[in-house]
Amino acid sequence: MFNKISLFLLFILIPVMLLNGCIEHTFNLTVLPDEGVDVVYRARGVVMDFNDEGQLMPDSTVWDFNMWIEEQEDETIQNVKASLRIENLADLDRQLDWRRSKTDTLNLRHRFTVEKTTNPLGVDWVFTGVVFSRGFNLSYGDIWDYVPAECRALDDAKGMQEMKSEDIEILEERFALGVIQWNIHRFTERFDRVWNLSATHLPGLRDTSETTLSIAKAGWVEDLHQYLNKMDLNEPTLVNLDWWSDLRPLFLGHLIDITGPETTDLFSRVGDAVEQEYQISKDIEDDSFNFIVKLPGRIIKSNGSKSDDNTIKWEFSGKELQNEDMIMTAKSFQISIWRAVVLCFLTVLILTLLRRVFIRRRGQNG
Length: 366
What we know:
By secondary structure, the protein is an alpha+beta fold. The protein folds into two domains: 7-11 and 161-283, no CATH class; 15-135 and 285-339, no CATH class. It is 44% helix and 25% strand. Strands 3-4-2-1-7-10-9 form a seven-stranded mixed sheet. Helix 6 packs across helix 9. The chain is elongated. The N and C termini lie far apart (109 Å).
């Protein structure tokens, strides 16, 4: 068992450094009284994190886009700022859906709306934002279903200082073995997912017998176990963290054996897309998100943090977003001076008329 580099560092911290982009995303939305929206997006993080395949930026042909590098003592920071005036409230969600473009980056699934309604005294503005969960545990399984609960102690730095080194090594090894079991699960499930997705493009695949599919899947699972069993947990340099690159030929081979070489391209594209979807869902874990919304008038209701009379802020982590929908709501009231004046005038006029009618009737009765 090695001393300096633990199994816990090997299976958790190294993948985090390779896969998880620690990027801070900030969205500033200013709703204008004329029903337009000024959007400013900012991102800040280590350069290597922006180079991840799943990181997307706004389309520079549409947005006013700027990017610059900030050299710090121990790392290079990349900054991004993009701004856009959206003329129509109905276009807000579409303009923020960067997944529609080949230059897409963030891959946030969301729904943003701003509604404006008038009343006798002014205007009500209602903002609703939903950033949808990546559904990580639903898609890939909860890693803690495979890792013993006692391994959570490895997250407690203070508690680990009081543990014996041999006890820490035992927990690290159990954790690593649990991670392997979790990966066996998600790669096993990938067979069905790639097959079913491919069948949406090539419906004839659905005519394949269950027996044929079961045999092919069993062969894939056997190859998967053999690959993972070759890992030497005592030699971190021999553990390949990029498992899909190694497993891809074996995986595709079992699918192609069923259908023939003419489906090679289809299975390759679908398999790589599923892998990228996983990487994006994993990569978002260490990101952070700030949404700042400024509405006309005064905020009267929201589930965010109120920074001043008409500005609300929400903060959440990518880890929360992996398995939970983030819901943001805010409502403001913008008083209309002329409407208020007219209403007051009409109110006074009506009261005056009523008073005269009352006095007249009272005089007649007297």
